[in-house]
Write a structure and sequence with these properties.
globular, 14% helix, five-stranded antiparallel beta sheet, 10 helices, 40 strands
Length: 650
Amino acid sequence: MQTLAYGSWPSPIDASLAAAHDGYPEFVGFVGDEVWWTEARPAEGGRRTLVRRRADGTQEPVLAAPWNVRSRVIEYGGRPWAAVLTDGGPLVVFVHFADQRLYRWEPGGEPRPLTPVSPVGGGLRWAEPQLRLGLGEVWCVLEEFTGDGPTDVRRVLAAVPLDGSAAQDRDAVRELTDARHRFVTGPRISPDGRRAAWLAWDHPRMPWDGTELIVAGIEGDGPLREARTVAGGPEESIAQVDWAPDGSLLYASDRTGWWNLYRDGVPVCPREEEFAGPLWKLGLRWFAPLDSGLIAVVHGRGATALGMLDPETGEVVDAAGPWTEFAPTLAALGERVVGVGASPRSSYEVVELDARTGHARVIGAAHEDVVDPVYYPEPQIRTFTGPAGREIHAHVYPPHNPGCVPPGGELPPYVIRVHGGPTSRAPLVLDLEIAYFTSRGIGVAEVNHGGSTGHGRDYRDRLREQWGVVDVEDCAAVALALADEGTADRDRLAIRGGSAGGWTAAASLATTDVYACGTILYPVLDLTGWGTGETHDFESQYLETLIGPYAEVPGRYAQRSPIEHADRVSAPFLLLQGLDDVICPPAQCERFLARLKGRRVPHAYLTFEGEGHGFRRAETTIRVLESELSLYAQVFGLNPRGIPTLELTK
């Protein structure tokens, strides 16, 4: 046991190790009896591949590099693949990230394009493909740019011929709906094949504000007919819809203040917990109906479990196992259910549940301890008190290293981490990027500030017109509470966040004196610019609820923006930006730095070619982690070993 100052503890968790294990399985599904999913490859330029698990348990990638199975619909993407088993083997359709075309692939051949390239704006994009072999088509969401602006776009449900006749001919794509709604999800087809159901919403709403559940008839090869809204509205968010085997309509609605499950409009398990979440990607699934009538559900309050819901009794039986968090992706075949689960001691892995026996097991992307797990952090689930006595939920990760103790009386530095969204949350799972810091003697606290999901609509509505206020106050309250109770060193607090979390980090440095430094990743910095044409269509009117209608409160946009208060920033900071980011473009960072010119605030600005909103390449993650640690070392007076020194300019 060594006595060493916080921040100087030797750790086997280096940046390259954390980078190699970044990403997690997504979009699970059955192809025949096999389970397939998409999986990240940080070392291969951050691409995502499609993985299959054969009947004998072996796993293999379906598509080699450079194929990248990822959609850009609404920029955050959606389910990018579908497949069925035919006499000749699997028939696969998928979206390739580089050109966003839909491709067809069968064993023994090369992928063949099914859709054309459009030179207009962001082109043609596709998500949530569903194979309809009887019609010789793929049904999916089509996002089509009509001009060069980020909001020059329309979205419809469309049918793409499987024979490749639309590969060079946009007119060969059959549109199933008109473009009356700005946003749509992929259609779910009823068991008798006669009806389709999907979700739709319009600006300025986000899908967690209010969506409409639409049902229409299917008749031959014509468009969907007699579309009508059967549930939802401006103040009711329906996050998912599907059909039960008996033809009843299942959906998750928050009409009571919690996303609960309904069958033909009747609640089947009314509880003050969530059975769904924010629809950041098209094709997320929190429930899956089984042939037996049971429904597999991902549910919980502040965390999620995988359970089996009996809609007749409302009883839920959760799967036994070590997992304390399940991602919003499910698939069912017979009595088999597949999801993606994780825990504070394990990363996300593909889990199969036998609904008859209740037995659950890992079948893919199995977690492996790449270092001795004694170096993993030991998190605490905490609830803090904020302004006006409001509750603030957080996960606290104290410094932890089995071979080191600090000198007597020393308090550790702490980093307050803020999730993106901001309508999202930080799950309580093993994250080697957090372990990278805690194993070196730097504490981390993840704050699920007001506005976060997992605690009902009232909790997430706290951020309505209060972005830049409630999130900043909640993070500061947690940081100061940790210092007041003697957990953290008051003089060595940092804040760190990406995207919406980057906004909160920047706003915190500009409006409080709580933090000694900060790390800001691909942030929003200028509300006026971001809300008037500098971001993508999906979030282009998000600020209407987060800040208020621009036409009514233009002054508030300036008042809240960190760029307008750059003169108040005195703490050193690290600013990180992907040059291909169309959600939070580099122009915002450049304007912010221009406002700082001459003020002699120590800082570093690192940009990354080929990276967009959220970093995916291993080499980027390595540079980010080492630079972040170097910032803390310089500001907090730490001595980490073997870390390149980040050059701070003034």
